[in-house]
Design brief:
alpha/beta, single chain, 8-stranded mixed β-sheet, 15 helices, 453 residues, 7-stranded mixed β-sheet, binds flavin-adenine dinucleotide
């Protein structure tokens, strides 16, 4: 929409054209209400972004996988005519830790019985504790203060004997949360596991969060929603100020001023905290912007003529402590017409990697791919990186996390409306928080609240 046709009022304004904000807007529009979406960037999709490798191969440099029970995402893909296909998983996975390489099938590597037992018990305990914490009100759980006073690293240290088992849980966490285990509140981990259903669901490919991919890339979901909303979506409109007066809200975004009955803010809380609110938000809500910190996750993708690792009997999936990459996946197109190797760098390593010049970053990542998959990995046709912690309008990814004390201090403010201001975004979800599924659930919940108000 160009500047001349910009609106000056709407019944509902949604801030942020990520999946959550767009879903909220769709629900409001479908109820026959007048809605406008204001988006800071010159594109929709937020943490979902398609890039092109080698001039023709689509690569998801943001969110990518559809989990086995991500029913909202599956339905939306179906409605938009976007195909879903399984993550490539044939062949053996690699585990390269402590200078030793092992090939294995499925989620569990072949390790010593003591290590396997420790991992099995830890996962069972985490699931049991997650069930008692739940995803609705973690701050009100029976042992909330105690669990919130401890980090995942401290819990692992106390509860898991084998150092290798502890390291593997830490490595998985770097990609799941984009944060090291020493920065994560245990209560947050349990909330997150509860919202997904189990620890295994977070880390599994088949039957878990990494089961399927979207034909043409995950950004097609927000692009499809935005196309249906048409000129109700305004790009290049960064909201700077939200003022509540009498029975309305005034929203200022660049040169745009909009009056609305209600507003849905669908942003990561740390990014929402940069907006000036008048009157000021309650203290607990203000603290939330500081305590719920975006993780740091960088996706590194190398394009090859073919997925050559498949011929070696490898799936492309690996867990490694070589660094900077800790996890890899085969991210090739559905038909295997080209090879795309995806490497994740998460947590403190993501911040360190970003500090290096581009040539050194690429060399460090490709050296890791080469060690895992052989010399052919050192010569990609193209290479791309997306460092989400560097993105002004995202602040990081894949989601935001509480460190110790955060949930009990300001958790109740996460979804609680402040008069006419409602909150969406995947961070506010109670089902698959942090994921596309959570973004959709949160958007639907915020829209239902606004329609009911
Ligand atoms: C590297 C990475 C990998 C991931 N992998 C997966 C995966 O495999 N599967 C999965 O399900 N999920 C994955 N995720 C998570 C998934 O991408 C997110 O859960 C989801 O996209 C969040 O949507 P959202 O609408 O809540 O937030 P966002 O996508 O962050 O949307 C917020 C929007 O608000 C805009 N904005 C910010 N500030 C303002 C402002 N002041 N005014 C106006 N607009 C503003 C932003 O530009 C953005 O468009 C991943 C994320 C990352 C980063």
């Amino acid at each position: 929409m160009n500047a001349d046709s910009r609106r000056t009022s709407a019944e509902v304004v949604v801030v942020g054209a990520g999946l959550s904000g767009l879903r909220a807007a769709q629900v409001v529009a479908d109820a026959g209400r007048d809605v406008v979406v204001l988006e800071a960037r010159d594109r929709v999709g937020g943490r979902l972004l398609n890039a092109t490798l080698g001039g023709g191969v689509t690569a998801d440099v943001g969110g990518q996988w559809v989990g086995s029970d991500h029913s909202r995402v599956q339905r939306l893909a179906d409605e938009l005519g976007i195909g879903i296909f399984p993550q490539f998983g044939a062949g053996r996975n690699l585990l390269d830790v402590g200078g030793k390489r092992r090939r294995y099938r499925g989620t569990i590597p072949r390790l010593g019985p003591g290590v396997l037992w420790d991992i099995f018990i830890a996962r069972r305990r985490i699931d049991r504790m997650a069930r008692s914490v739940g995803a609705e009100q973690p701050w009100a759980a029976e042992r909330a203060a105690e669990l919130d006073g401890e980090t995942l690293a401290e819990w692992c240290e106390r509860s898991i004997r084998s150092p290798l088992a502890r390291e593997l849980i830490g490595l998985a966490g770097r990609t799941v949360w984009g944060t090291g285990p020493e920065e994560l509140s245990m209560l947050h981990v349990l909330f997150y596991v509860a919202s997904a259903g189990s620890f295994d669901k977070l880390i599994d490919t088949e039957g878990g969060a990494q089961q399927d991919r979207l034909d043409g890339g995950a950004q097609l979901l927000p692009l499809g929603l935005a196309a249906a909303l048409g000129d109700r979506v305004q790009l290049d409109a960064p909201v700077r100020r939200i003022e509540q007066r009498g029975n309305g809200v005034r929203i200022a975004a660049g040169g745009i001023e909009l009056e609305a009955g209600r507003v849905i803010v669908a942003l990561p809380p740390a990014i929402a905290a940069r907006i000036e609110f008048d009157p000021a938000l309650p203290e607990r809500r203000r603290l939330l912007g500081d305590r719920l910190r975006p993780g740091a996750l960088t996706k590194c993708m190398a394009l090859y003529e073919q997925p050559f690792w498949r011929a070696d009997g490898l799936s492309g999936e690996s867990v490694t402590d070589i660094g900077p990459v800790t996890l890899t996946f085969d991210s090739s197109p559905r038909d295997g017409s080209a090879g795309v190797m995806l490497g994740f760098v998460g947590g403190p390593e993501a911040r360190q990697l970003t500090a290096l010049p581009p040539g050194e970053r690429r060399a460090a990542v490709l050296a890791c791919f080469e060690r895992l998959f052989g010399p052919a990995a050192a010569q990609p046709l193209d290479y791309a990186e997306q460092a989400w912690a560097e993105e002004e309008w995202s602040g990081g990814g894949p989601t935001s996390n509480f460190g110790p004390g955060g949930w009990t201090e300001c958790g109740p403010a996460l979804r609680e409306p402040v008069d006419r201001i409602h909150w969406a975004g995947t961070e506010t979800a109670t089902v698959w928080s942090g994921y596309m599924e959570g973004a959709l659930q949160a958007g639907e919940r915020a829209a239902a609240d606004v329609l009911a108000a």
